[in-house]
Design brief:
Elements: E1 3-5, H1 7-13, H2 16-31, E2 41-46, E3 50-58, E4 63-70, E5 82-89, E6 96-101, H3 103-121, E7 128-132, H4 136-145, E8 153-157, H5 161-171, E9 174-175, H6 178-182, E10 187-190, E11 209-212, H7 225-228, E12 231-234, H8 237-243, H9 245-250, E13 254-257, H10 258-262, E14 274-277, H11 282-301
Helix pairs in contact: 2-3, 2-11, 3-4, 3-11
Length: 304
């Protein structure tokens, strides 16, 4: 019988430590050529407002697909900008195993991938975190990154000052202008729907690490050319060269896929100023769905 898991159930089964480890393994497998997946097929329903993405992937132990709606036009309405459903199947027989809500999986796997990258690329003694953006991904990144570094100071900026103030009050952060937040920060997250750069390379201190997860369209930007001129690591070369305006428009040279670093194929440039540009790929969703499914099966088998 096909299992169904709603968002509440998914949230009760996911744990940051296991998810971060699963993302490392999934992306290492991807970069080693052990995953079969096309670049996301994104259908434009209404430019700038409504998109539908189709994301299948097959790995040795998991197979499935995510259907994701990206509706930036939902901003401010109370309806999430990202909604999704994931179907998980057995890779050996093709049998459906589960259907589950994918909104929370999208949120958490994105932050978990950034945390895994930060563990390899940020300075070991990183203490100051700057969040550009104060929405769902800012909150998720704060939780995930605290699993891999101990931050003594958290700074936040938002284009809407009230949003930054509320985030700061709730999470014991400091709201401040973008340039002030970034200057002197060890780790920076850009998680916005910006169309033009909101982070300037001149603000970055040497050795800083940036996780850039917003601006998921080929003509949108979060980082200026100077920021993108630093050591660039991506989740998928093929995907960023199709989907990321930061990479496409800056014509930046890609040092490595993060999976190559996880697999030991490329060295982690810890002393460099680094940018990890993540657009999100299907294997992250399918590996997370498999993690959720296995946890649910484990709960069912435990004696009550």
């Amino acid at each position: 019988m096909v299992m169904f898991l709603n968002e509440e159930r998914v949230g009760g089964l996911l744990r940051w430590d296991r998810l971060i480890a699963a993302m490392e393994a999934a992306l290492a497998g991807f970069s080693l050529g052990r995953v079969l997946q096309p670049v996301r097929n994104m259908l434009t329903i209404e430019e700038g407002k409504r998109y539908l993405g189709i994301m299948p992937a097959v790995a040795e132990d998991a197979m499935g697909a995510k259907l994701v709606s990206f509706y930036p036009g939902n901003t401010g309405t109370g309806v999430p900008t990202h909604l999704a459903m994931i179907m998980l199947l057995r890779p050996d027989t093709g049998e459906p195993l589960a259907v589950m809500d994918g909104r929370l999986i999208t949120e958490m796997r994105t932050a978990a991938v950034s945390a895994a990258a930060t563990r390899r690329l940020a300075a070991p003694d990183a203490r100051v975190l700057a969040l550009l953006g104060s929405g769902v991904q800012a909150r998720a990144h704060l939780e995930a990154l605290q699993q891999v570094r101990h931050f003594e100071e958290v700074r936040v900026w938002s284009r809407t000052a009230d949003h930054a103030a509320r985030f700061a009050e709730r999470y014991k952060a400091k709201a401040m202008p973008a340039d002030s937040a970034v200057r002197g920060a060890d780790v920076i997250v850009t998680a916005t729907a910006a169309l033009q750069p909101i982070l300037e390379g001149a603000w970055l201190k040497p050795g800083a690490h940036v996780n850039a997860v917003g601006a998921p369209r080929p003509d949108w930007r979060e980082l200026d050319d100077r920021a993108m001129a630093n050591t660039l690591v991506v989740d998928s070369r093929e995907a960023v060269l199709k989907e990321s305006g930061d990479v496409i428009l800056s014509k930046s040279k890609i040092y490595a896929e993060i999976g190559e670093i996880f697999a030991g194929v490329k060295a982690a440039p810890v002393s460099a100023t680094t940018v990890f540009k993540s657009v999100g790929i299907a294997i992250e969703d399918i590996a997370t769905a498999k993690l959720v499914y296995d946890a649910a099966c484990g709960e069912q088998q435990r004696p009550r």
